[in-house]
Amino acid sequence: MHLKISFYLVFAILLVYCDVAFEDPNNQLVAKTEKSELLAEDLSKLIGPFHGELDSIKKAQEAINRWARDEILFEQAQNILNHHQTTELDKTIDQYKRDLYISKYKNMVIQSRLNSYVTNQEKKIYYDQDLSSLALDQMLIKFRYISFEINHPKEQEFVQKFNQFNTEDRRVLDSLTFLNFSHAHFNDSIWFERNQFLSKVMIVNQQNINQFQTPNKLYRVTKSNLIHLLYLSDIALPGEKPPIDYLDNLLERLIINKRIQELEREFDNDIINQAIQSDILQIY
């Protein structure tokens, strides 16, 4: 097995990259094995982008070596493998090709028929019927939280707005965050897992978390020269069924996957029935 590489032509293809004109540069032979040839046009596709002459030469040589290694190995495999082995490989390749074509076509048809919109009612039905035995393995918490310096002149205002927390209160607190709060989290409609909660709330840790498990309660703690206000909007404990809004994205994926499976079954049945009706398929 022999490999021949023309370094002059490697240099030529690099000059082509630099917009220097050559006569038919794409037809120039760069490397060859016993059964294959690498032309300048093919090499240019293998090299990709480069930075400077040295980088281009390095990438050209690497591309040639990769091409040569693959070609030599393929040619050696063809020579060494026996007829039975090559026949089995060809069958596998043919079947894989058929499977790829079929899969691509089925996916295209199914995606064209798929309704990806999932209503809240559909999620609720699936949640009640198909996830009845699902249980949490950790605590989930919805909360809001701020901390600010002791004796802050607006302390009473902060406490009042944080406790009431209507739309206007939230807007005001949010606008004051940068200059007044050491920590702030206002989105109490999102579930957080236990460790996420611990990482965001400075007054709660692994040792005292059991003291913060009462929903709809305002906790006020003074620590490290800061006043911490924590309000737990909701809590779900281990062993309880996960809240439906926590599973919202999962429910949507499960319902869509179920629809896809149903469309696949319909497609498989329809393709046979339609083929028989149109005389494309005849079964004896």
Structural commentary:
With 284 residues, the chain is of the alpha+beta class. The chain folds into three domains: 4-80, no CATH class; 120-131 and 244-277; 140-236. Helices cover 53% and strands 15% of the residues. It contains nine helices and eight strands. Strands 4, 5, 6, 7 and 8 form a five-stranded antiparallel β-sheet that branches. β2 (29-32) and β3 form a beta hairpin. α1 packs across α2 (40-47). The chain is flat, with a radius of gyration of 33 Å. The chain starts with a strand and ends in a 7-residue tail after the last helix. The model has no long low-confidence stretch (mean pLDDT 88).
Distance between the first and last residues' Cα: 53 Å
Number of strands: 8
Number of helical regions: 9
Into which percent range does the helicity of residues fall?
40-55%
- Calculate the mean pLDDT score and round it: 88
Order of helices and strands: EHEEHHHHEHHEEHEEH
**Major sheet:** 5 strands, antiparallel
- Quaternary state of the chains: single chain
Structural class of the secondary structure composition? alpha+beta
Spans of at least 5 consecutive residues with low confidence? none
Instruction: Give the overall shape, derived from the CA principal axes.
Output: flat
Measured by DSSP, the beta-strand proportion falls in 5-15%
Radius of gyration over all CA atoms, rounded: 33 Å
How many domain modules?
A: 3
